[in-house]
Design brief:
The structure holds 2 protein chains of 2 kinds. Chain A has one domain. By secondary structure, chain A is mainly alpha-helical. Chain A contains 11 helices and 2 strands, in the order αααββαααααααα. Chain B has 2 domains: 222 residues, Rossmann fold (3-Layer(aba) Sandwich); 67 residues, Alpha-Beta Plaits (2-Layer Sandwich), CATH 3.30.70. In chain B, strand 9 and strand 10 form a beta hairpin. In chain B, helix 3 crosses helix 4 and helix 3 runs parallel beside helix 5. The longest helix of chain B is centred in the middle third of the chain and has 16 residues. The N and C termini of chain B lie far apart (52 Å). Classes of the chains: A mainly alpha, B alpha/beta. Chains A and B meet through helix 1, helix 4 and helix 5 of A and helix 2 and helix 3 of B. Chain A: GO terms for molecular function: ABC-type transporter activity.
Chain lengths: 257, 316
């Protein structure tokens, strides 16, 4: 395919993905807005006012970057996993498989679609947070790089999950039993410096901790870890997951007999 | 004439050890209207699945208009349109979006894709339904939608797997007319079907596949010439109450009360009419029995089943 044809195929996948999650917005865009508003009210306003200062900021300001990142991670992942698995389930994935679209364009299209929802939801949550607190940006390039790369990474994770899934249960296992605990334990609601040494060391093995802190550094200028190490880790994970996803596509794992 | 499809030594063994294809060879000339016939589980869908990249082959070569699917897959796919047996579109998307999205996968720019989608949706009587979600369509409309989607990038080879399954007679006839028109305009068509009269009415060449092997691959005419006996159906003026005794031919009364006569090739019908005349039976109309291909098909498949029958374990 020519470069122009590849671009058309790529944008077709992306537009289709965006059309999907905007068509079902009460299932995709509304719930995170409602959930995060509740987090802001309960944890930020009601409980946060009693917690006082964390990391040099009031509690509401401290948790906002983590909550934005949480919605980006969850939505980037769940968009790709549910969309691609639905295509597998309905067999409409065959529309792509019979076409000349190269595997890397299929992957790039789905990941970009997942990023569109993740970043879109992150933007909605950011706007909502402004109703509760005042946000300043400490390091804009770090904010942009961390949020975009994290979104891409979890969209890739969702893609691999969808390739491996054989039933609907399989697409909820990872978000429920892996992503949610890691996000909650990834320093969204607290600084890991509050933890005993042992649990601080354990927390350092949680990749989401680096993403939340990298993003928090970009917004507030405070972080439990070196933000450049965070960026490096995210990039390394992206490369590994992209290679795994492309190998699965080439073998037709779960999509070709 | 060049070949639209060349298959050589194609084998497929599934993960559970089932050997669906046992080394088949098949050539389909450009411009042909070709039928791949066989009973359920014979290997038809596996063959078409491999050609359309939905199934990984175990061994063998497949070329579409000379493009090898191992080394030039993208070029091969550009020339191929596929209509699968089962509905495989997103049930929640609108008809127009399904067709234009498919065009986008082939790199066709939006405006051109919209024009092509309109052309085929109009031809297949779906233009009025373009804004309807696919799940709201009737079964026949869904089949036509899959044909429009397969044609939107103007493929030179169209593969249809059971295109008229579950479609009423009127719609089936209109789909036949559409496919014949496409074929006249130069599109090579390969179809699998359970309706053998469909293959007899439409196709010029036929392959019969069973147990993963090609039993016959020849022209429809040559295939039908293998029939040494042809059956004619005679409608008589008075309904017959008993089977007339005719010399040198076998006959019977069918469920509709008409007389069916088996005539050997070269025997001619004059002696039959002379005998019926002597018996005072007046024939008012006559036709050949339509399922000639069906008879031949059953004969070939039954023979193949006997030849490849393996005794079950523990059976002496």
């Amino acid at each position: 395919m020519s470069l122009q044809a590849l671009w058309v195929a790529f944008t077709t996948i992306v537009v289709r993905e965006i059309r999907r999650f905007t068509r079902i917005w009460p299932q995709t865009l509304l719930p995170p807005a409602v959930t995060m508003t509740l987090y802001f009210i309960i944890f930020g306003n009601l409980i946060g006012s009693r917690i006082g200062v964390m990391g040099g900021f009031d509690y509401m300001q401290f948790i906002v970057p983590g909550l934005i990142m949480m919605s980006v991670i969850t939505n980037s992942y769940s968009n790709v996993v549910s969309s691609f698995f639905s295509m597998k389930f309905q067999r409409s994935i065959e529309e792509l498989l019979v076409s000349p679209v190269p595997n890397w364009v299929i992957l790039a299209g789905y990941v970009t679609g997942g990023m569109a929802r993740g970043l879109g939801t992150g933007s909605i949550v950011t706007v909502l947070s402004l109703a509760f607190t005042h946000l300043t940006i400490h390091h804009l390039p770090m904010v942009v790089a961390t949020v975009i790369l994290t979104s891409a990474l979890f969209a890739l994770g969702g893609f691999i999950n969808a390739m491996l899934a054989t039933k609907f249960d399989d697409i909820s296992i990872v978000p429920t039993f892996v992503l949610t605990p890691l996000t909650y334990l990834g320093g969204v609601f607290y600084s890991v410096q509050l933890l005993p040494d042992f649990w601080q060391a354990v927390s350092m093995a949680n990749p989401i901790l680096y993403m939340v802190n990298g993003f928090r550094y970009g917004i507030l200028g405070v972080s439990d870890v070196n933000p450049y190490v965070s960026l490096g880790m995210i990039l390394a994970f992206i490369v590994v997951l992209a290679v795994v996803a492309l190998r699965m596509l080439a073998r037709g794992k779960g999509i070709r007999h | 004439m060049r070949n639209a499809l060349e298959i050589e030594g194609l084998t497929k063994t599934y993960g559970d050890g089932f050997q669906a294809l046992k080394g088949i060879d098949l050539h389909v000339a450009e411009g042909d209207f070709f039928a791949l016939l066989g009973p359920n589980g014979a290997g038809k869908s596996t063959t078409l699945g491999i050609v359309s990249s939905l199934v990984n082959k175990t061994a063998g070569r497949v070329r579409v208009f000379g493009y090898d699917i191992d080394t030039q897959l993208a070029q091969a796919k550009l020339h191929l349109g596929v209509v699968p047996q089962e509905f495989n579109f997103n049930q929640f998307e609108k008809v127009f979006d399904i067709v234009t999205t498919q065009a986008g996968y082939y790199g066709i720019p939006r405006r051109q894709a919209a024009a092509s989608a309109e052309k085929y949706l109009r031809k297949l009587g779906l233009w009025d339904k373009r804004e309807t979600p696919a799940r709201m369509l009737s079964g026949g409309m869904k089949r036509r939608l899959m044909i429009a989607r397969a044609l939107v990038h103007e493929p030179r080879l169209l593969i249809l797997d059971e295109p008229t399954a579950g479609v009423d007679i009127e719609l089936r006839r209109s789909m036949w007319a559409f496919l014949e028109e496409m074929n006249r305009q130069g599109t090579t068509i390969i179809l699998t079907t359970h309706y053998l009269e469909e293959a007899e009415a439409l196709c010029r060449n036929i392959a019969i596949i069973d147990h993963g092997r090609i039993l016959q691959n020849t022209s429809k005419r040559a295939l039908l010439q293998q029939l040494s006996v042809e059956t004619f159906v005679l409608d008589t003026e008075r309904e017959l109450t008993e089977v007339p005794r005719l010399e040198a031919v076998s006959c019977r009364i069918n469920d509709d009360g008409a007389l069916e006569v088996d005539v050997e090739k070269g025997q001619g019908l004059n002696p039959v009419f002379a005998q019926l005349d002597r018996l005072g039976i007046k024939v008012i109309s006559m036709r050949t029995k339509a399922n000639r291909l069906e008879e031949l098909f059953l004969r070939l498949v039954e023979r193949n089943s006997v030849e490849h029958h393996e005794p079950e374990e523990g059976v002496a």
